[in-house]
Amino acid sequence: MTFRTLSRRSIALLLCSCALTPFAAQAQDTDPEFEAAETAAQADEEADEEAPRRQGTLEGLNAIVVTGTKTQNVENVQEVPLAVTAFNENTLEAYKIRDIQGLQFQAPNVSLDQIGTSRGTANFSIRGLGINSSIPSIDPTVGVFVDGVYLGINGGVVFDLFDLDSVEILRGPQGVLFGRNVTGGAVVINTGNPTEDFQGKFRAAVDGPLVDGGRGGANYTTSAVLSGPIIEDKLLFKVGAYYNNDEGYFTNLFDGSNHGQAETYILRGALEGRFGDLTIRAKADYFDSEGDGPSGQNRGLFERDTFDFSIDEPGFYDTEIWTGSLTVDWDLGPGTLTNIFGYRDYSARTRGDIDASPVFLFHSNTLSDQEQYSNELRYAVSTDRLDVTVGGFWFDQTLAYDEGRELPAVTSAEFFGGGRQDHEVIGVFANAEWEFIDDLSLLAGVRWNQETKDGAVTYILPRAPCSVVAGTCPTGTQPFDPATETDGFTDSVRFRNLSPRVGLQYEFANSQIYGSWSRGFRSGGYNFRVTSVPGFNAAFALTDTLFFDEEQVDTFEIGGKFQTYDGVFTLNVAGYVTKIKDMQREVNVADPGAGVVQNILNTADATISGFEAESTIRLSDSLVFNANVGIIDDQYDEILFDISGDGMIDQADFDLRIPRIPAVTWGIGVIHELFLGDSEIVTRVNYQYRDEFAFTDDNLGWIQDISSLEANVTWVTPLDGLSLSVYGRNLLDQVQAGGDTQLPFGGPLSTGVRQPFGNNPTAGTLSPLQRGRNIGIEAMFEF
After folding, report:
1. Total domain count for the chain?
2. Is there a domain that residue 596 lies in?
3. What is the DSSP letter of 78?
4. Residues spanned by the domain of 529
5. In the beta sheet, which residues pair with residue 331?
6. Which residue has the higher pLDDT, 481 or 115?
7. Which residues contact 552 (CB under 8 A, 6 or more apart)?
8. pTM above threshold 0.85
9. What CA–CA distance (Å, rounded) separates 725 from 712?
């Protein structure tokens, strides 16, 4: 089922002439010609000041700065020699972004999905580097950083967001500045800081499905933020609260009930002290959310282009997260010394109807418990010709995971098992940009990492009740003997590596071209979900290790960023070739004895190559057009494991598509501002297409293509600070699933037991559905 449609790629190539970054990424430069144009524009603006025209919404979307380069001074996105899509507070508001998943339809070659089996668990992929698992011991390819703090696991990432200052999506390996597990890229989230002036924002919204006959219930959201000085220019504060009550988007055909219900609370606080050259900022966040389990569609029972599903148990999730950060900035000598301390405590329980059918065949419980500490200390210096950043990083995490399985048609005994891991990372890094010739700069950086994982795994098998989290499950004896061991194992592994980056940047006429080579690593580790002891022992016999090895990624990239002096037109392009060594995959195999077996293996060496472009055109003072395009090709270079499952490594393996790689993504959008005397109407429409892609390595599981159409209309009323909006997401009502896990049951009912259908050896799927068409209204008041 390979998919290489030339016609779609040809269409995408035609869009390259107008491919676009978010319209907010318009630069301001110090070039004399640009200053002249800016002076003229300011003169025109001053001439218009006598008119009653208020400052337009679009004027708040002009300059985007990025923090992901970790230089002493923030940089404009157009000046950074790497592929990055950035959104400031005004842009996020214009796009009505409510969670990180909503940004995936704004950038090329980016998929920010959640896996769906465990609500809030990230399943991110950038440039074809991603994962397809909810196993907490699998490290991501796309690192997520909140206020400079790395989130150690994928759990609890794709939840509700509010009061954001900016979001940056950095594409390609970011190993020098961010360390491990950013081989695909990094998502940098900055929450709002305390403000010098007293201000507040209140928001209330309701949305839900709008289809013939209705589907599910309403979704209510409120939030409030208050910020200002405690002691003027010395001590500032910010507090915020968020509440969401989702009545459930879907209808469960089993009993006609709403499904997907959730209730979420967020409390947030921040204090900032300013003491001359020293700034100290503390932030704390409490998150609590609970609701239904996955809305799983079994595609052996229902058509994949429908929202139909029937499950006999709604399941649940219950997540609690505490996070905190302490950031210290000290202007010391010629540079700035920055220290970021972070803390996160994550706890989540889930129960899901995994067989996704109206018969009790395979249900599962999980319990995840994570606590992490981190600290980064860096010193950055910026001069006219040199930017240098040096620093060190420490990360410590304890992670424990329980999983229980119930398969009553197989055995009356419940499955118990999971894993525990102590995890430490230390690293040092240095990064520099040196303009050694006028307009020509050398880009160079390197990071040394040492990572240690001490793991203890209990096989998930029918056994007496036990808990890895509570420390009551057996983990085998040492030394490990696969011939006699039936409980599990304990082991320790250490990885050391260097992540370098070397490149050149040439700046000209308010534009730039750049080229670079960078290397990154994705962590190795242990599989917490061993359900097939023979399969695990077979892998052990091949590698003589109890862990899967780290993944090495080398990317060669060349790009350019072009813009006019007046900022009317921008065009950013990048082409890349990525070489992957020892690719990590979670190989899913349907199994009638365990439901599904998920082995984590180093399966292959591969090459991914691609092209992407973004741009904007300001057609007038009140109309901005934007578009983007991404094209990816992939191939296996060497096969290390029988991916196809036919019992041999042959051409059938090489012909498979690498999972999580849509061949084409492209999109276009427009935003328009209409002035009505003392009010204005802002209209935004955005369309994004993402090609289908394989979800499983054997290509039996696929995620269909999706055409996402979004629109919103905001009336900025004559009452100062009040705006009213109508918005719609997924207006074409496209069906999208978080996964396509293969299951051994899903055919027609026969005496209460699922039977295989046709020649498909896997019979059915667990495909957790995501929302279809969603229409809402919102009121916001700022003061």
Report:
1. 1
2. yes
3. G
4. 6-782
5. 336
6. 481
7. 497, 519, 520, 521, 580, 581, 582
8. yes
9. 7
